[in-house]
Amino acid sequence: MTDSRVIVALDFPESDSALALVEQLSPGQCKLKIGKELFTAAGPALVENIVGRGFDVFLDLKFHDIPTTVSRACSAAAKLGVWMMNVHALGGGQMIAAARDALGKGANRPLLIAVTILTSMNEKDLKEIGIFASPGDSALSLADLAKQYGADGIVCSAHEAASIRARYGDEFLRVTPGIRLPDSDSDDQKRIMTPSNALQNGASYLVIGRPVTRADDPAAVLRRIETVLQESGAK
């Protein structure tokens, strides 16, 4: 199977719509992300269904709680067969370490990544919650914390990916939401980037939602993205 760099966000309110899209795609074209809305509506059974179809699943629930609670949640998520899951780096080092320990040391364990600064937040938004560093500096500090306590990588804006790759190399993953095609709306994302620019800027994986999920032909959009990445030399 091709290790696609594209993660399609299944941002749907219920399982029927999500599965209707999944049936148009193949595991070689992309990985799939299941977030809070869809998981709350459809539960673990949908995750197991999609994993059973051969897709790598990123379970995007952003666990953020006391270390014991997060550890148990990560252990339960791992039993679903997911490829990747995440926690909030703002939960602190001990929470990240507990999550990482819960996943074990096996070669096939899920990857653990930590959310740094949400791509919907800019400097003004950070100041409102008492963070006075820039989004870039804040993301780098949280990446340092995630690395120190055993995470496999972080979720960050593509704008921060280059500095994080420069500090930690390619083995420390940079998963970047806020990816938009040149002709797409930015919706509620404030720090966005095109697929080719994001990979050139140091992203490991690209999270792409509405440009694919709302397309008349989602598979064709993925083929277009693949072609653009190859032609740009970013793939």
Short description:
By secondary structure, the protein is α/β, with parallel strands linked by helices.
Descriptive report:
- The chain is of the alpha/beta class.
- The protein has eleven helices and eight strands.
- The chain has helices at residues 15-22, 36-42, 44-52, 67-78, 93-102, 123-128, 135-148, 158-168, 195-200, 210-213, 218-232; strands at residues 6-9, 31-35, 57-63, 84-88, 111-115, 153-155, 173-176, 205-208.
- Helix 4 (67-78) packs parallel to helix 5 (93-102) and helix 7 crosses helix 8 (158-168).
- The mean pLDDT is 91.
What's the N-to-C terminus distance? Answer: 16 Å
Whole-number radius of gyration? Answer: 17 Å
Biggest β-sheet: strands ordered side by side in the sheet? 1-2-3-4-5-6-7-8
Number of helices: 11
Number of strands: 8
Number of domains: 1
Major beta sheet summary = 8 strands, parallel, barrel
Low-confidence stretches: none
CATH homologous superfamily designation = Aldolase class I
In terms of quaternary structure, what is this?
Answer: single chain
What is the structural class? alpha/beta
Q: Kindly state the mean pLDDT as a whole number? A: 91
